[in-house]
User: Fold these one by one.
Assistant:
Number 1:
Amino acid sequence: MNHRSASAFVFSLIFIFLGNPTSGVLAQNSQNQSVLMTVGGKPVYKDDMVYLISKGSGDKSSPGISRDEFEENLELFVNYQLKVREAEELGLDKTEEFQLEFASFKETLIAPFLIKNSIEEGELRKAYSRMQEIIRASHVLFQFPPNATTEDSLIVLKMALKVKSEIENSGNINDLAVQYSDDPSAQTNKGDLGYFTSLQMVQPFEDAAYGLQVGQVSDPVLTNFGYHIIQVKDRQPNPGQVRVSHILVRFDPKDPTQEENARRKIADIYTEIQKESTIWEDIVKNFSEDPGTKDRGGLLPWFGVGNMIPEFEMAAFSLTEFGEISPPLRTQYGYHILRLEAKRPIDTFEELEESIRSRILRDSRSSVIQSQVVAIQKARYGFQENEPSVQALSSQLNEVPKSEFNARLESQSLGAKPLFTFQGKAYTAADLGKYIDSQEIAYRGTVPTFDFWYDRYVAEILAKAEEKDLESTNKEYQMLLKEYRDGILLFSLMNKEVWERGITDSLGQREYYMQNLESYQWDDRIESFVVKILDPKGLDAAKSHLQGNGYNETIIQSFENQIKAKTPLAYQTESGIFEYRNHPVLSLIDPSKSYQEVKADGHTYLVLTGQKFPAGPRKFEESRGLVIRDYQEYLEETLVSKLKSKYPVVINSSIKEETYLALNQ
């Protein structure tokens, strides 16, 4: 057996447990779990076996298992438990290697059970749901002056409210954007953002836009850019993605003569394209001024709504027939002519899930998710913050760098200041100082020192509390964690006692080979060259080359080089020494003939034969692969036998019957 990593092994673990049941009567444990058996005095519960076998069966619609299948699985399960028991006895669960691997597994296993996962899942689903629709909106942006005071912010807010009132009183948002908006693009697009969908705008803007009906105007929406007044102009089903090719004629927008020349040129190209004899790719190559696409027919990548400038995008999505060509259109890059190459609907949730997750975790939604997680954890686990003390410490320590934090606590006698009480324990500024000291990274962002480290400290304590809670209350997580823990231990034991030993113990291999020589015997063998005719047209050439010959390396090589090499799809060949009695083709030959033709599985075979070898023992070198496999099986059987003596197995017959019934519900 090849040496495998524990990581790969654990996933197949539930299929390979194995022992020998005996009878007895056991009681229930203190947690009211049914004890199926004891292994060396240690209880093993009914739920452990039900979980592993149910998970291993996979098919939820299966009618259950037969009595014989149950007994076989019980045997496997006992052997599995014996090996885990021995691994624990040897202290394999205390090694650094085990601790590191198990910690890595836990980090992966716990993720689906965390509060964060359910909130994240909700955000993913919400984003995908919004993606089914595209929105066209206009906005007016009001930015704050540098180092804005509270009074400055109020002035900006009042201006935003004034503009909102004007729009609601029949004012035109696009005209007002030109007049008031601090968005530099407003002077050219008049505040029109074109169509967009979910995850293409900052979250507060997106939330506000998706909450408006066509024609509605938002209250001032605060983002990192300032206050926005938003008006939704249109809502449509998402058309998915489009692929177009294009011709581009560039011009300098500041040079009217250049633009006029470009307009005439694109008009002439458009006229030329209308001719039936015109080849699109030739026109693109000759006239397009887009160096990135002109040599490949002007082909652009797939794109969806919100990925291109609005006028280009609208022209592309307005095309309906494949091969349809748009009239010339003007963008900031020049004049274009588009041709529709393909369209496809929006991808499924499963196809987009990882992309959506990545985008959510890169924008402000990630901090919103974390804030929600912390709020739920605080409420669930009884977190009580001493707000006055925390605020006082923040004002005193916000500018103190990490390297000086503990010294400042000591010099100002702040270590005893309370932060919060959590699960009956009071935490102080000194505890925070110890935590900061233990962290290897130094924060270099704009968040004040105290606030950053305090939030990080609280989040870590809450996360550990949630993990501990899951381990003690969530049955599914408990079982999964135990499965992986036991799997790593079983792998470690088997690798040490069976797999590695089976591969490296050459003396043991030879001894096993000699003691079981009858298992490593050749049947009658014969030298053979077998040619399978795949194309009947190649039969005559093959016959002409091989007929009248027997097994001969020169003949075989010349056939491979002169006949098969010319028409490799016409023949399939194999050569060597074969046990012919059970061979699908050689079992049909007359071993006394050096050349013959046989029919099998609808094909003609040409066979050359040579020297015959009578039945007899294989050499060790010829059998080494088989010997290693069988030796490993022997080592495992020996290990299990030893463990059965070392750890007596006592099975509770009534709980055994309950287990059988549970697996057939």
Note: The chain is about 50% helix and 20% strand.
Number 2:
Amino acid sequence: MDSQLADAPKADILVIDDTPDNLNLLSTMLTQQGYKVRSVTKGATGLRGAQAAPPDLILLDVNMPQMNGYEVCQQLKADDRTHDIPVIFISALEDVLDKVKAFAVGGVDYITKPFQVQEVLARIDSHLTICRLQKQLQAQNARLQQEIRDRQQAEEKFAKAFRSSPSPIAITTFPEGQFVEVNPSFLKMSGYPLSEVIGHTAADLRLGIAQETYNQAIQQLLETGSLYNQECEFRTKSGELKVVLLAIEQIELDGVQCLLNTINDITERKRLENEFISLVSHELRTPLTSLMGALDLLIAGKLGSLTEQGQKVLSIAITNTERLIRLINDILDLERMKSGRITMQMTKCNAASLLTEATEAMQAMADQAQVQLLTHPLDVELWADPDRLLQTLTNLLSNAIKFSEPGSKVWLRAEVRSQKPEARSQKPEGEEEGENLIQNSKFKIQNSQSSESIHHSSPPHTTHPTPHTLSITVKDQGRGIPADKLQTIFERFQQVDASDSRKKGGTGLGLAICRNIVEQHDGRIWVESTLGQGSTFYVTLPIYE
């Protein structure tokens, strides 16, 4: 390939001159310089050759019989195939008018005879370079024009879709959050006229979208590149509160970084969903309670004895009925929390006691699964609902145990941190110094003399949050969670594997309930995981003074 490139001529040059000596001299000179040369003695012949195989440059004599150089050049410039070929006149005519005429018919240069070899070579090289650059510029201009047309078409399609979309759409500057454009659907849902929206922020309009929720959504957008189906509240100008799903994408508008916010109003869907779930759950609870009572009587032998096969079938029925009751109770629990019908019974409680109680409650399950529980409680007082926090901890421990292999460990830790909640502890995993080892049904609590202790006795609404947070982690050595499931597992009826509800006995609501409880304590819950190595659930709670 390299040898072929090296042998390729620098350019294809056509020489038209009726004097053989001139042709031989020019042909020899140009060939030695690496050019491909075609020589003809007649203007008509040269014209046909140029049209058949257009050269890169033409050297043209003026005085020739039948068709002189001016006529040849005029016809070359009149033909689209040869219009752009640079023509250099070489003539013995020195009159200024001859030179002017040569440029008038389309020549790019004029060399008088007798010519100097170096001058001819320099001018040829110069005009070939100019021609090459012009072609490059034309190609770039053509590409640019095509890009402009494509962009205009895309912008027209976007503008049409933006205006006609039934979903409310707003474009805001990033990171300022000022509205620069909204579609008619947004104005209709919000109740604001365009003049009151443009240039303002969601906070200015009091749209009710929690700033913390929106900031977390933006953070997720920056980390993952996209955000879809972020549920939040939206307040209209009249004060009506709607439930919406928010999708955000980062775009550039006229050189300015912006966010494309697409809103889907699910208020009516949520109302119907909640009514349906509540109705079905309540209607199912009563007959299931009666069914469970009847099954208990049968298994206890109060209504007669059963065969061994009958006992097995009855045990399966009881297990499935208990699972169904748990599912209904979880649904009702979650719906009451979300609707505000369950209020947190906030009181002063001790974090160490909660962790100890949660560990004791899950010890039997851990023993049965042959999993070690390792806990590190911390003597910190919180203003919280102890029953609900205990429900959260036992739920997280239950999940960790269920998805751990026999012989593996589950860690429950608590510590006070002054940095951002997402900061991670650097303590080596598996370190047992200062921990409580819970194994073979033996439970010990070892509180270190240096344990950090923070006390408060007043409810949060009369005090101020400290820069400290209580961080509780539940870590396992299980199968891990895929990256695309790390967010969705906190939604209702979401599980890593669809078969988990059947194999592990879960309802798919436990983590949704945990998230609701933690959020009602002004805390955060999230998970980090590595497939095949395990998962760590983080719960951070504010500490008040």
Note: The chain has four domains: 2-137, 165-265, 269-339, 347-544.
Number 3:
Amino acid sequence: MRDHVIAVDVGTGSARAGVVDRNGQLLVRCEHPILLRRPQDERGEHGSEDIWRACCHAVRGALQQSGIAPDRIAALAFDATCSLVLRDHDGAPLALETEDGEAFDTIAWLDHRAATEAEECNRTGHPTLAHCGGSISPEMQMPKLMWLKRHRPDLWDRVGYLFDLSDFLTWRATGSTERSVCTLTSKWNFVAGRVSGWQADFLSLIGLDDLVQKGTLPDTAVPVGAPVGRLSAAGAAELGLDETVSVAAGMVDAYAGALGVLGGVAADPHTLHQQTALVGGTSSCIISFAGDPQFGKSLWGPYRETVFAGQWLIEAGQSATGALLGHLLRLHSLGGDPTPERHQQVIARVQQLRAIEGAGFADRIAILPDFHGNRSPFADPHLTGVISGLTLDTSFDGLGRLYWRACVAIALGLRQILETMAASGTHSSVLHLTGGHVKNPLLVELYADVTGCDLVIPDSRDAVLVGTAMNAAAAGGLYKSLTAAGAAMAPSGQRIAPNPARKALYDRDYAKFLTMQRHRVELNGL
């Protein structure tokens, strides 16, 4: 009986595979690293073949550890970062650079090389900009494609296929060139529900009239919860599965996390619209759903049926959250490599110092966390971070003070985003947290106390993988719909209420936060 699925989640630094049963139980999780080349601070590149090998390694490892036979796997689904994969007419990697024998043919999601091109998109004033908060981010695909055509015409002339990373993985697994509604609507300025989702006038304005033909891009796309095909003979052999396995339409990783934590309430739109998913990792994504399109400055979307049928997705984001904490560790003389163990050592000391010094611990330090620009609420990739209140303290305790106040700043930024979303009509009373931030007790506490929202922590070890498994289960026919899969497979969770005794403290911090933002504008204007 085929009663299990495999979910594969590709992040910035690794590929994770999980074997999940039809009840949503994650039986095994296996991880394999992937390469990230950083030739410059604003650039990041992957090798798509390296990513595919990591996926195969993780899937085989998860199967072996689970003891589940391949003939019990009904379906497979991928989620991934919104990175851009380049292939030639033969489907071979089209390398930006080759290093140590690896072809780096993929522009990573975090790459900001196309900031100038993003500004050019925004100056067009095209109506499509309303679906990305009034301005396209350099992290999206159109600016990156403009950059490629302009700066690497040698590669553009040879392009045969262009993929969002999760669409590349479904192609590599099945041979199908179908794309996902999830990736195209959110990262390619594609409008779902039309005869052709491509906006020819916009593509012409930005010099990409040849994009659809050049990239072998279809006019329509496959919804989440539906299959793009079955495993090819080659894909099945590499993954250690058989050709009977269905492969679901790919997903953006953050949206898989949103599905994992909100899938259980998706069948009830009234409840769904009052909940928000917070997917915290290197960056953070804040995701809500609405029955009608709701527009707002700096909010990505509304995207039609990007995850759930009949629902519009609205996303906000913080460009550097986990990345900011890791950066502070590297920056400080006593920080070192930002390993999970090092983070926990600093967190443990912060907790001790808070117990000793009380609620006012380190409150002379104030931080604006925009070290990699600001996605929401300002939609400005050029914004920079600010630290106020530094002394000559170079001790480990001094590092702890900086780390704590950076965590506070991240939570204050989240509060501002939620207020921005509320002003556009998206009101949430409950936050569902998934991703790496669930392992940081400082952030877990602050997300509830600073925002005033109830916080739900899923019991699953990896809600992103569970969301991807829901996609696979629907595509493989284990359930009749995505919402049915969500209702059956959703993990339970621990609910944390905000501590009202800390409200005045964080209200004061928030007032300082807003004041610092005003001062930054004044300084930048001199």
Note: The chain has 18 helices and 22 strands.
Number 4:
Amino acid sequence: MRVPLSAVLNFRSLLVAVAVVGLAAGALSWIAGRPDWAGWIWAAGTVPVLVALIGEIVVSLSRGQVGLDLVAALSMTAALAFGEPLAGNVVALMYAGGQLLEAYAERRAQREMTALLGRVARTAMRRTGETLEEVPIEELVVGDRILVRHGEVAAVDGVLASVDALVDQSALTGESVPVGKKAGDEILSGSTNVGDAFELDTSRPAAESTYANIVRLVEQARESKAPSVRIADRYAIWFLLLTLVIAGVAWWASGDRIRALAVLVVATPCPLILALPVAIISGMSRAAKFGVLIKSGGAIEALAKVRTAILDKTGTLTFGQATISDIRTIEGWNGDEMLRLAASLDQASNHVVAEALVADARRRGLQLSRPTKVSEQAGTGVSGIVDGRALIIGGSRFVRDRSRSGDPYALRQGVPEGAAVVAVSVDGAVVGIIVLADRIRPDAPAMLAAFREAGIERVVLASGDRQDVVATIARQLGIAEAHGELDPAAKVAVVGKERERATVMMVGDGVNDAPALASADVGVAMGARGSAASSESADIVLLVDRLDNLTMAVRVAHRTRRIAMQSVLVGLGLSVAAMVIAAFGYLPPVAGALTQEAIDIAVILNALRALR
């Protein structure tokens, strides 16, 4: 279990205080003419920091991790052993101060993610008849109507029941400009009411709402182990060996062990210890501001290396919901009336197309009637009575074979490839067709262009939908390779094949995408409202279904990695230069510790640039 950051700050503040008190008290003793007391006091200010550091090293070694904290421990130990307690105390202060600075920088970098957790609504004003009662959000059920007052946060996902509303969605999307909503629009939990009070019809229980999912994901990310810094792992052992070689050669060549001590001091601590975690956490925080939750440091590093993107179609490039794109009727029939009758009958069906017809009819303000004598042939069509008229709706062949006159196929000329067609027959005569399509997201072309600008060279479309539908979407978006009719195992196979060529990012939103998300180098789940399985399997979760946020995350990943590498390489270069100067005797231990602290502060400040 990860130690809370507040506890880390308190402990490191205590170590800094011990080192400061030791340094100050020792200096006063020196001034008072008691250098023997001063030496003991400086040693006393060093030992607690050294003991804490050794404890951290033991824990790291037990996990199989070798870090540059060893150099800090060696320098403090050598200072005490060589009779240089002042140098040891200065190193202890510099090291403890650097660790405290890192903790403060980490807290600053985590601010965006932590802010999410402070916005959780606990109660809601539920309307019961003509009265309002404040209830815990756990008691809300689908269909409850709640009042969201000015300044309050929507506790659940719902549909706006008032005429209009003005909400601040910045916690979800990163947009600072309030968004206007109209009656019937969806309002996501976590949105703040910045206008007049409005009423909301609950569409999901609190535990399943968008913001509850976001909070769970953020808490998981915070409770997981600290970001793995693989770049540091690759360089740490080599830098440790280089430090020991330079220190050893300096001692051997000069016969002065203080030069070896100075080399160790200058190498303590190292930019690798401080700069990388700060840069990576800053990048994760910056991405969170755009509504993108990156779960680990390894994920942000991998995202910067992605060269191939595999995209699911439904819910990713398209909205994942069929909507009416065209209504065609025979002469004498009105399109809205035909849709009203068809949607009235489809209220008795739970088929996805039926739900789309009902939802679209309600959006148009059509008054639906109660159907009777309903008979459904699963996946093919429905028949029944609406307002005293016999209706048959469904696939073209199903409706044609059950009608006395008319042919739906005669109305299908020019229907786009891959669109779904619902035929409608009234009192035995075919009266029209309704064309439905899963619309391409308007931001999809811009996302693909931004991907290419960010260095993603290859885009592959992978979907469980029909091959003709997938091919049509790919052609419209200029995607060269498209795979349709894929089951979860087949998607995993596509990911595995692409990984042989380059680092792969998989983007999806459904349960069937979870195995592919887990098998990719970087798995991205679309929206916290997507399936729990996909969000759990993914390395990155888009908190809202906006593709431009993903492109921003890719840019953030590239910039974060670039800043991290700058901090490491510049910091290491300066440290090596200082070690060489110390090896030649031009930089005594105390001055070397101060020099290294200046280097550390510089690389931490540079790493914090990833927040901007």
Note: The first helix runs from residue 5 to 31.
